[in-house]
Amino acid sequence: MDCRRNREDELKGIWQSWDEAKKTRFQDNYGNVAQLLFVKPDDALLKAMVHFWDPTYRCFMFNEVDMSVDF
Asked: InterPro entries from the entry (predicted)?
């Protein structure tokens, strides 16, 4: 976990060090993916949802409903 945290902090630092022009160019190419660095995941929600993950179909299965994750 420490390794992930270090990378997250490093990526946040890089993003925050960029001027607005560089951030805009990045967003033009990759969309708002960098904003995911600043989202605090809900650990309880993730733990609950992992039980519904179907790795074969790469989606969440809730009874008869499939829910896929789109990035």
From this structure: DUF7745
